[in-house]
Amino acid sequence: MRRDNRNTYENKFLKFIIMKKTIFILLIIISCFGCKKDRLNDTDLLKTTWVLSYIQDTKTQAITNFPGDASKKISIVFNDPSDIISFSGICNGGAGTYTYSSITGEIKVTDLITTLIGCKYVEWETYTVQSLFYASSYKISDNNLAIYTSGSYNLYFTKN
User: Which residues, in sequence order, are bridge partners of residue 108?
Assistant: First the structure.
């Protein structure tokens, strides 16, 4: 009879352990699904032409709209899987490399090289390129991309 009691306790203990492991695994699965809600979609950022709409001064928060009478728009494209960012300006173009995290929203642009042709509103190209060098994070909302920087201007783009 003692042996039967011992087996009963062992069976209850094993069931208890299995139940604890099952609950633990379920909690991990549930928490992982919760994390995905905050995750940015890679396809939203990549292989999309983003056209500059306006810039925002990081110190004063003042917004300056892109000039409506500019001969061309400034745009960027994050190419995947090559990790190349393409830049097309009013009178210049260029490319560089980038890294990003769709989980944290961090972004970094490096090695951005452009041509140096002067034209009307060329300062907008300078604002854009310099701000991309200081890019730290991004946020996509609907058809809009915001690139936040530690430089002078945050950049705001619209999906083309």
Answer: 99
Per-residue pLDDT band for 98 (boundaries 50, 70, 90) equals: very high
Residue 29's domain comprises: 1-37
Specify whether the backbone of 77 is left (phi greater than 0), alpha (psi in -120 to 50) or beta. Answer: beta
Peptide bond into 67 cis (omega under 30): no
pTM over 0.85: no
Task: Say yes or no: 65 and 128 in one domain.
Answer: yes
- CA–CA–CA angle 31, 33, 35 (5° rounding): 70
Please give the biggest Cα pair distance in the chain.
97
- String of DSSP letters for 25-67: HHHHHHHHHHHHTTPPPHHHHBT-EEEEEEEEETTT--EEEPP
Question: Helix count (H) and strand count (E) of the chain?
Answer: 3, 9
CB 46 within 8 A of CB 60: no
Structurally, the chain folds into a number of domains equal to 2
